[in-house]
Amino acid sequence: MYSLPLPVQTNNLLLHRFRLSENSLAPVIMVRTVCKSGKSTGGPANRSVLPGPFKLVSGLCGEQVIKSVYHKPLPHGMEEAISTRKKDILIPQFWNHVGWCLFCCDGSPQMYECSHCPHTVCVRCIVIPEESLDYIKKGNVFFRCPGCHEVRDRNAGKGIITPYFGFEDAQGKAVLATPATIHGHIELTSRSEVCTLPILILNFILASVDIFGSPARAMRDGLHPYVAPDYYEIVFDIGTLSKVKQHAKAMEKLVQDIGPCQFACVEVFVHSHSDTNRGDLWAGFETSNIKGEHEGPVAYSLDDFFTAVFPSSIAGYLKGATLWMLHAFAFDAERFHACLVPPFIFAYVERVLVEGFEVEEAIEDLLKAAPQLGMHTSIIHIRVTNIFHRRPPTVSEYNKGAMRMDDKASMIVTTYKFFHENQHPWGNPLPYQCLRCYCVRSWGSTTRPMSSNTQFACKQCGFVITYTKLDHSKIILYHEGYRGTSKVSGKLTKKGLGTGSGWLVVVAVEPDGVLALAQSVSHSTREH
After folding, report:
1. In angstroms, what CA-CA distances link 250 with 215, 245, 411?
2. Does the N terminus or the C terminus of the chain have fewer Cβ atoms within 10 A?
């Protein structure tokens, strides 16, 4: 899905405070200082070349992904370390298995599964006469949920409303003598599901990184009330040739432990650092002569990094999991704080993994859940279109040949930038200090609100700084500013001189980038 790097821990300085007696010398007055370990990502690292070397080659759907480019035989043991094995492709079900009630979002000893959509309803929320309970268990009786009943009425013609019976024969005729009684109300949106299909979470962690409170664990905890996900944490250090081989063997064992690929969704996190100059990702450390200590960090280019972290055994396994959804998220902050991501992750779990919405449909809910993340970094959403369907077809769609797919595919890169008229004009942080006279918070806007070219002038020296709205960008989730309730009428009204805020959206289509995305970043984010 996406890569969320976390910080390496450093030693804190322990500060001691001494109390001086009356006869002692007076203390020297100085600035009080304290040392704290950083929690942002990024830092310098020596660039290295992936041991081997290895090279990514084009391929999907079980074809070879990692190939050696040695001009001579591989060193002893290396061939086994990078050998590629063909894996079975994930076999889809007709639709998601939804184990929770559409109305009360709870379970029950008996649930009615809709024959036309993924919804289920419990026996507490839909009640039928006791004399009909045995009859509806027959093989030729089908259940239609209230949502599908509404859709049928709407498609039948304008103004047509019919009583809800719920249970029908193969021709769609009601089999109950009296309508069913609904004892519930919709707590979610009408299109929401409460999915319980198995989900696999793989959390790859660079050695020495502290991942307490990480987004991966937040996703695991958020999913647990609905479906307990299979969760694995893999600590990696691939800074040397021997460590690459050791990691590859560990991945083979992981695939064996997981078993056949039967997950509806696989979410992969990679926690690492990035070099602030080149964007290379930290892969591990050089071997130290002192036991238990690391030498300097080693960083690989993006392709080399993902080739080594995802050797052929796990790469072939993951390719089957990308059959229905290819999405990745990236964050472009130079010193990225992963601790700001959990609200974004919780919204993703709720709207996408649990309620079953497409990522594109739920993206605004995800953005609204993480305003502080937006002030810190841009959010880059990468997805592949026209190549995979996330949702398996219904019976009627399957019979109509809905699984035919277009051979053409495009990689769409959407960048979301949070803006605030006075603090983050057009997605750019306004300097806290004037660049000329060094006065603090001395800016004043000299242009009309929401102008394409917004200017701020220093009130002290007149220095002007200009921000321009990105070309071909559109605005979503715009909010005009502070709003409150009128004491007279009680109505919602704008108070004071509130400033507008929202998100800028920039979309780019890259038709030639599909294979590269599927190979290296479909499950892990590239950090820029």
Report:
1. 23, 9, 32
2. C
Alpha-carbon distance of 393 to 501, in angstroms, equals 39
Of all residues in the chain, the percent with pLDDT exceeding 90 is: 21
Kindly tell me the number of DSSP H helices and DSSP E strands found in the chain.
11, 24
Helix (H), strand (E) at residue 314 = helix 312-321
Cα 269 to chain centroid distance, Å, stands at: 9
Residue 130, classed as helix, strand or coil, is helix
**Is 507 within 8 Å of 470 (Cβ atoms)?**
no
Are 380 and 329 within 8 A, CB to CB? yes
What are the beta bridge partners of residue 479? 501
CA distance 146 to 165: 9
Question: What secondary structure letter does DSSP report for 19?
Answer: P
- Which class for 293: exposed (0-12), middle (13-18), buried (19 or more C-beta within 10 A)? exposed
Measured CA to CA, the distance from residue 178 to residue 164 in angstroms comes to 9
What DSSP element (H or E) covers 53?
none
> pLDDT, tens digit, for every residue of 81-122?
334 333 322 222 333 455 678 788 787 788 888 888 777 888
Our CA angle for 433, 437, 443, nearest 5°, is 45
Element (H, E) at 284: strand 281-285
